[in-house]
Amino acid sequence: MKILILGGTAEARELAQQLAALGHAVTSSLAGRTREPILPVGELRVGGFGGASGLAAYLRSAGIERLVDATHPYAGIISRHAVAASQESGVPLVRYMRPAWEQPQGADWTSAADAAEAAAILPSDSRVLLTTGHTGLADFLQRSDCHFVVRLIEVPAMVIPPYARLLQQRPPYGLHDEMALLEREHITHLVTKSAGGAQTAAKLAAAQRLGVKVIMIIRPAYGQAVEASSVDGAIAALGLTG
Description:
alpha/beta; Rossmann fold; six-stranded parallel beta sheet; elongated
């Protein structure tokens, strides 16, 4: 079958590899925000589709028979477009959604609906490790009464103010390094999203060990779709075995 994977995650690459090994024709679509992405096997498409209708038109014109949304759990617009495009085109959609992180017993977590609420929660004079990506960055950097370490893979478009510094790193991150970072920067608050997965989970364990408070931005709702929480589950949900 011809399968389009909306990707950019490690799980999307694993899914592409397994589906290709099963003999399916896989095309992975990347947003194009990362300049040197790790590339999946199979065909590659980079850039937007022009909204939900554009994605639906692409599905029809390319003869796509299955659509997989394996984007980041906070990808936002593209995940909502996938639902609408599936409904418009009739192409079945499976959403791969890695399990969210769960608050360990004894950990100090506060939930926030979005970046604006998370920024408002921060007490004055907080020293913050910010790991929420580019979206909503301006909400945090308006807080000139706090100090930020902004960890990103890519340099942001906006100017980093003097009360913040950019830390360019690519996951995975280990527990020892995360603890060293929190201690070196005297971090009082970790602000993150419940992305799930093992590649960036060490920061949560490090925060708990060091008594750093966590502000967790909860996941958005993207609309109805068949969901799977593992790569094997996604393949089974697609109804493909060979």
